[in-house]
Amino acid sequence: MAGFVPPPYPYDRLAPIAAEAARHDGGAVDLSIGTPCDPPPPEVVAALADPTPARGYPPSIGTPAYREAAAGWLARRFGAELPVEQVAACVGTKEFVAGVPQWLRLRNPERDTVLYPAVSYPTYAMGATLAGCRAVPVPVDDAWRIDLSRIEPADADRALCLWVNTPGNPCGGVDDLAAAADWGRRHGVPVLSDECYAEFTWNGPPRSILRSGSDGVLAVHSLSKRSNLAGARIGFYAGDGDLVGYLSEVRKHAGFMPAGPVQAAGVVAWADDEHVDEQRARYRERLDVLVEILAGMGVDARLPDGAFYLWVEDPDGDGWPLARRLASEVGAVVSPGEFYGPTGAGRVRIAAVQPLERIRLLAARAG
Fold first, then answer.
1. Omega before 205 cis (within 30°)?
2. Of 79, 100, 107, 345, which cross-links 338 as Cys (Cβ 3.0–4.6 Å)?
3. Kind of pairing, strands 309-313 and 87-90?
């Protein structure tokens, strides 16, 4: 009897395109994976290098200092006041996204469905699969926002949770988070709001679902993008006290605990906003330059409402032709839209994650 066979990891499928891009003098300019290239603040690095917190087991839920720093940032940045008891650490947010359906289903085995945006980060669907749940995509509207009105009543009745992502990856859409929270409360479904790009919102202020109260919702945040700490693996989830309490206890038993030095570095990072303002400026400049380069190649691209990706229509078809063209003509490696769900086919995602001088190299190659 055949069991679960993991599908190919999406970015592994880019190897031929990366090889083609690498033929250019100066090598490939990798704009496929959203991995930060900029340095974290020196104060954060110094905290990370302190060996003292590495000597003992760190608390799985997060040190008091870490949780207080995260709660302080929520209050300062979003006006969302939460007691530290409703904030808990996680080992980066990808493991949380992938694992939370399993923990929720242990608590409520009568429900078996994970709802998530039809064009989105692939781990929402994979988390459902790994938990033995139904992964049910929710259609998005013309602005790439989740369309709550198109959730089937039968799916709502079976829903274990609803994921929303604002600003969205890959499209940069900005959802009505208050409406999502209201939908979840009316249907008795926890709403999990992935807000890891909140600091990079170009259309209005940063949003959090916690502005609508904490009942029945969780906000998920990460230092990976905000503070260029993707390799350190640290984030937090916050919101409904009952959900946070349950998940933190389960995760304690499972041994999930962010490393002590990483939590200490996180305290410093959450407390400082100046380096984030500098990073916002970097991403905005890179996005503007990429839009200009693509326009020179006859490709229409527009600034998103949020995040540091361009979501670009392929005039020739399914996303792969444009990806191959960008690799062969200018040496850029980008992600075909099908990586983010079948609805994304026909587009590519371009991540502004290379230094400006590398991005300008594309313009020089385009002539």
1. no
2. 345
3. unpaired
* Cβ-proximal residues to 127 (8 Å cutoff; 6+ apart), any chain: 97, 98, 99, 100, 101, 102, 114
- Taking the CA atoms of residue 312, residue 23, residue 39 and residue 46 in that order, the dihedral angle to the nearest 10 degrees is 140
Query: Which residues on neighbouring strands pair with residue 118, listed in sequence order?
Result: none
Cβ–Cβ under 8 Å, residues 193 and 223: no
Distance CA 115, CA 104 (A): 13
> Domain range for residue 295?
10-39+275-366
CATH number of the domain encompassing residue 203: 3.40.640.10
Flag whether 3 is in a domain: no
Residues 266-311 have pLDDT tens digits of 999 999 999 999 999 999 999 999 999 999 999 999 999 999 999 9
117 and 193 part of one domain: yes
Host H or E run for residue 348: strand 347-351
Asked if 74 and 221 sit in the same domain, the reply is yes
Domain identity same for 218 and 101: yes
Domain count of the chain? Answer: 2
State which amino acid sits at residue 321: P
Rounded CA-CA distance 237/250 in Å is: 14
Instruction: Tell me the CATH number at 330.
Output: 3.90.1150.10
CB count within 10 Å of CB 110 equals 7
User: Does 207 share its domain with 288?
Assistant: no
Mind listing the pLDDT tens digit for each residue in 317-348? 889 999 999 999 999 999 999 999 999 999 99
Number of residues that make up the chain: 367
78 Cβ partners below 8 Å, 6+ apart? 198, 206, 207, 208, 210, 211
C-alpha–C-alpha distance, residues 173 and 176, integer Å:
10
What digits encode the pLDDT tens for the residues 101-150?
A: 999 999 999 999 999 999 999 999 999 999 999 999 999 999 999 999 99
The CA-to-CA distance between both ends of the chain, in Å, stands at 56
How many of the other CB atoms lie within 10 Å of CB of 281? 10
126 and 60 inside one domain? yes
